[in-house]
Amino acid sequence: MNLVPPEVMAGELDLMWQSVFTWASWGIVVIMLLIALRMGVKQKTPFYVFAVLAAGVGAYIEPLYDVAFDLWFYDVSNGVAGAMWSHFTAFGIVQPNWTHSGYMILYSSACLYAGRALYEGRISTPTLFLIWLAEITVSCIFEMVGTGTGVYTYYGPYVMRIWNYPLVIGVLEGTQVILFTVLAVQFWRRVNSPIGLLGLFVIFPITMMGANGGLGAPIIIALHLSDAEFSQGLIWASTFLTYGLCILAVYGASKFIPEATRKVEARDPSYASKAIPA
């Protein structure tokens, strides 16, 4: 079960939906960057712009994800390969240009709408779980369109699919968003210079591979057992184990939510003039 089935490799790419994914996603990214730039200028920090760009650069590790989770981007049109608008191929998997815009939308948006609130300690544990559920929902909607319209597929023997999209993938992606956002904000609070925030470009691949390769390890291994050891029961068990690990990870991340500014100020009145940008 380690090789891409020939019938999957021969799958036809929907050219119209390729155009939709490409132009719509990059259009959204332009809007996100403008918002990030405006917020950054107002708050005198490059955090928001760097967070978005870090996710975009991080998309270069997508081939590792594809191999681990049996993801295939269709590249054939009318029986001829080369239909995907791609910039490189790795492990035999053609990488579409919109992987970068997709990463920026899915993985960095929480930094824009929740980053400041996390920084100031205005996010509670229940709210963090609500953000997690919202990100899972967005991931499912985004990817269900791709898997349901013939742009790409998760060909492995997954269970609990929604319009060809494995729910466990959405749960892992939502968890990655939480881990990246919380760690990025904690890093932001500790860095004293704008240049130092370039560390976000390192933090992203760490949380990306940690969440998917670590928390997702049970399902990855179950998908790729030898034929003699493989069973659908193990797929079910590993799926629910992965769900449990993701819940545990989000709960753990909630313990790293910064303490509310007002509580710190009550103990240290000089804190207000220290690290928090305007």
Can you tell me about this structure?
The protein contains eleven helices and eight strands. The protein is mainly alpha-helical and 278 residues long. A two-stranded antiparallel ribbon has the order 1-6. It is globular, with a radius of gyration of 20 Å.
Q: Share of helix among residues?
A: 55-70%
Largest sheet: 2 strands, antiparallel
Strand content: 5-15%
- Which segments are poorly predicted (pLDDT under 50) over 5 or more consecutive residues? 264-278
Q: Topology as H/E string? A: HHHHEEEEEHHEEEHHHHH
Secondary structure elements and pairings:
Elements: H1 6-9, H2 15-43, H3 47-58, H4 62-69, E1 71-73, E2 76-77, E3 80-81, E4 86-90, E5 93-96, H5 98-119, H6 125-148, E6 152-154, E7 161-162, E8 165-166, H7 167-190, H8 200-215, H9 217-223, H10 232-254, H11 261-267
Antiparallel strand pairs: 1-6, 2-3, 4-5, 7-8
Helix pairs in contact: 2-3, 2-5, 3-5, 3-8, 5-7, 6-7, 7-8, 7-10, 9-10
Short summary:
It contains eleven helices and eight strands.
Which key terms come to mind for this protein?
disordered C terminus; two-stranded antiparallel sheet; single chain; globular; two-stranded antiparallel ribbon; mainly alpha; 278 residues; 11 helices
